[in-house]
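User: I'm putting together notes for a lab meeting next week and I want to include a structural view of one of the chains we've been expressing. I don't have a solved structure, so I'd like a prediction I can at least talk through. The sequence is below, exactly as it appears in our construct file.
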Amino acid sequence: MRFDVITLFPELFAPLLTAGITRRAYESGLVEVCLHNPRDFAQGNYRRVDDRPFGGGPGMVMMAEPLEATLLHIRAQRSDQAPVVLFSPIGSTLKHEGVEAWSQSSGAILLCGRYEGIDQRFIDRYVDQQISLGDFILSGGEIAAMALLDAVARLQPGVLTDAQSHHQDSFNSALDGLLDCPHYTRPEVWSGAPVPDVLLSGHHARIEAWRRQQRLELTANHRPDILEQARSKGLITKADERLLQAKN
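Assistant: Thanks for the context. Below is the predicted structure for the 248-residue chain, given as structure tokens.
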């Protein structure tokens, strides 16, 4: 798959593409990332990419012409009609189901806004989908783009050391969308706090039952909305409900 990223700051992506486990996805070509700076496609001696907003107000607005030239350059390089994705406060919140869908796609063109935003005429003409990370504002779309790329990369075959690791992640369908359970490692007693006995028992059925109970309780306490979603899909069994009732 290929992701083309339109950004005024391509240098921000260097650590993402060269460090950490997910770099395997980029180095192997499982996820190809191409960076494009609109300044390279802007006209004039100053290669201007932004201007003051009509109607007044603070800040600057990214201009449509350089963005269009950048997009047409990318379109000429790609053989598909990849969707153009803008990271924006009005977008749908990115969730695990969305990441899974992107991880099985052929990629997209990711548009990273800056300043006060992007000329709305470009958005109306070219943007196919808008995505948000949540109800807060970033300085630009680069961090959001990196979040999507990282989440997609770790789902690719061979990227994680243990191929089953992501199946135990919070929100994964393998866990019925619940939050993951707590995890422990050596030493068995740290600062007076021991590891739960069941995890040292070697009894796999008991361990899995404990983990299920922990996932249910954590989700009920911290993300009851997710628990209700699982209930509506018929993923919470009568045994699960008894575990929740017993804890209450």
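A couple of points you could mention at the meeting. The chain is about 35% helix and 15% strand. The CA atoms of residues 17 and 27 lie 8 Å apart.

User: Perfect, that's what I needed.
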